[in-house]
């Protein structure tokens, strides 16, 4: 049996997220170089690599061997390289597989990378690519059912129709209002303003958010994560290898990936995130009460409130109240999305899961600068990808602890 | 540490390979249903799935969550599903990751699936998709260096230029002739004629092969693997779970994936296949002398001879002599590509690695019908994918034994 608790994050690196003219390999190179240097290693020390990416095939044309093409200019070759895709949960899926290899004792030192280039001179290209995170044969039917006006590639992501449908259902379930959703944006944009790697970040008011352009009722532009390019990487080491190398880092206490549509449909707080969280808490021997901070998948603002409930941070229907309490703000007892989250930091889809884990690593090491959570010891990262029927196609929860 | 020798292949299923009008999910469904039934299980018994595919993003448009979309109609949901890509080695990479999860004790029963749809009403679409298994920014430069006339999407796969360059170098190294390459085709087409799941298969002569249309000197049409659609799947179980369920199957004795371009360039028989084979033999505690049959990656006919040397079946330069000896024919002491290989069985790229392992499974169980190798106890499968600089981007070797 693998030693599930003997895997450390000894290196973390990520680019600034932005709409960028930089190539995918350039972005990946920066994140990997920073992560490997942070671990005190050289490229030749890496024994395997797990590379998450969502849409390079459609955006850059590099459909196959994406990881090999990104890593070879860095001198990373010869070792096993696996290209892993799970839509917006691609990077956390790559992390899980790398963690599994180290926990199993198959490798001592591995690289996990997530990289994405979504921006394109033709905006419709990136939007259409994102739209393939659903069953493409069911897009039209799904759009009709959601009532959001259908896929409209080139103007907005099809996913915003899905999120709008979720938001309306959540409003009915919890009493959440558009003001609550705007409050999530205000909080996360404020955090992003303290994160030099965030794409956006500003001191906004609820009014600013509500009066930004409507995308699909009830979502305004500022309630939706932006189109972003970027990369994030971590180096994982076995506890023994880390000791030998004098490397330190937070410990992965739980790594869970599930897929959706296997849950009690009468409970809106259940679903894949709830199942993944329950499994992760069990694996870690920890509960929501032990968390000091969390990064969650706020691809749209309402999602953060829904996830509060799925992770057990709030009781069913209690998402709006938790937000209103201020507890999830910086300075509260459970800051959420200190990085700015997807809403402010940006959402280069295949990089997002590892960007969350970089933030968790920096928080647990006390390296989070102006957004540091005092004395953070336990952090959670939740990352979802794709959509089928009525749940995410892939859902991941990782829990890290400072030692 | 994981128990590397405690993973069994308890179920195998594959479609007939063919140019087909069937959808990817239809092909995948058949292979998965057959594999799960073969293991005596139901879909609900599966605990995780690892899904290999190369080019659905470009050929069908389903860029993301390919596995979830293929598996959901079968009722496979909720469990972890990972989409894995390594070009023509996608399926063996998916197998490796599934094997790792079972060997690590993380799951007891997993599904590994490879599926590909390469045929398209516009032949250029499939050809262009295959061409993304190289660094697309280096295609033109690579074509010039190979001297094969350059990428000519829509007429032939860019890879045939790469293979032709390899073939010419191999001819200089070993004294191999076009007649030897034709001999590989005659052998493998003869085997394919005994395999009801093979796309082609015929009793050909060397003359037939040499007089078929020239693709790129020295390759003729019959020396090149065809455009194929198809799917192959296996169920892996831990030894304990198999015992409890009364399931049986060959044992995975070694599972190795590496990437290329880290080798002694003065030795043409080295490279990624040589390194992967050496690691696999060490993991299995077996050597080439222990093999009873092998499936190798004959994407073009010369590759089979090159791989003979890389796997240690023949000494350096000894590929042509091994072929000429008849030892690798059915009835010889080391039949290679009993299934027909990629040349005759077909090469739906993301399915190929698992189709090889299906053949190995059937041989080791005595279920290979008219192409059965008497008393086969140990089988090897070698599967390569993509191309960078001067080696495969991904290379896998699996070794299975009857018990």
Tell me about this structure.
Chains A, B: InterPro entries: Thiolase, Thiolase-like, Thiolase_C_2, Thiolase_CS, Thiolase_N. The structure is a homodimer of 403-residue chains. In chain A, β10 and β11 form a beta hairpin. Chain A starts with 6 loop residues before the first strand and ends with a strand. Chain A is globular and about 55 Å long. About 2% of the residues of chain A have low confidence. In chain A, the strands form 3 sheets. In chain A, strands 1-7-4-2-3 form a 5-stranded mixed β-sheet. The first copy, chain A, has a 4-stranded mixed β-sheet with strand order 8-11-10-9, with helices on both faces. Chain A has a two-stranded antiparallel ribbon with strand order 5-6. The longest helix of chain A is centred in the middle third of the chain and has 17 residues. Chain A is α/β, with parallel strands linked by helices and 403 residues long.
């Amino acid at each position: 049996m693998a030693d599930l608790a003997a895997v450390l994050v000894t290196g973390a690196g990520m680019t600034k997220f932005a709409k960028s003219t930089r190539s995918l390999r350039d972005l990946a190179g920066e994140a990997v170089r920073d992560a490997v240097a942070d671990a005190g290693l050289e490229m030749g020390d890496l024994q395997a690599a797990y590379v998450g990416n969502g849409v390079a095939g459609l955006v850059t044309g590099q459909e196959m061997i994406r990881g090999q093409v990104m890593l070879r200019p860095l001198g990373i070759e010869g070792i096993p390289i696996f290209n892993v895709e799970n839509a917006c949960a691609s990077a956390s899926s790559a992390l899980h597989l790398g963690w599994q290899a180290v926990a199993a004792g198959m490798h001592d030192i591995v690289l996990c990378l997530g990289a994405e280039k979504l921006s394109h001179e033709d905006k419709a290209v990136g939007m259409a690519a994102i739209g393939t995170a659903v069953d493409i044969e069911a897009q039209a039917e799904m759009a009709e059912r959601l009532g959001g006006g259908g896929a409209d590639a080139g103007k907005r992501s099809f996913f915003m129709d899905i999120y709008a449908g979720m938001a309306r259902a959540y409003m009915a379930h919890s009493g959440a209002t558009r003001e609550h959703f705007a409050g999530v944006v205000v909080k996360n944009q404020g955090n992003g303003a303290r994160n030099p790697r965030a794409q956006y970040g500003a001191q906004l008011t609820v009014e600013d958010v509500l009066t930004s352009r409507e995308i699909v009722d009830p979502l305004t532009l500022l309630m939706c994560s932006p189109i972003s390019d970027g990369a994030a990487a971590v180096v994982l080491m076995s506890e023994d290898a880390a000791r030998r190398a004098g490397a330190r880092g937070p410990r992965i206490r739980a790594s869970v990936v599930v897929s959706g549509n296997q849950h009690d449909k009468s409970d809106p707080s259940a679903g894949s995130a709830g199942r993944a969280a329950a499994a992760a808490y069990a694996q870690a021997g920890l509960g929501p009460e032990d968390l000091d901070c969390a990064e969650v998948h706020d691809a749209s603002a309402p999602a953060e409130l829904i996830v509060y409930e799925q992770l057990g941070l709030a009781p069913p229907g209690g998402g709006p109240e938790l937000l209103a309490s201020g507890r999830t703000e910086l300075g509260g007892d459970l800051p959420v999305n200190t990085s700015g989250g997807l809403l402010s930091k940006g959402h280069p889809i295949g990089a997002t899961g590892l960007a969350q884990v970089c933030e968790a690593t920096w928080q647990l090491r006390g390296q989070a600068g102006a957004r540091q959570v005092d004395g953070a010891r336990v952090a959670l990262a939740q990352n979802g990808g794709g959509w089928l029927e009525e749940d995410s196609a892939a859902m991941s929860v990782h829990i890290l602890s400072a030692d």
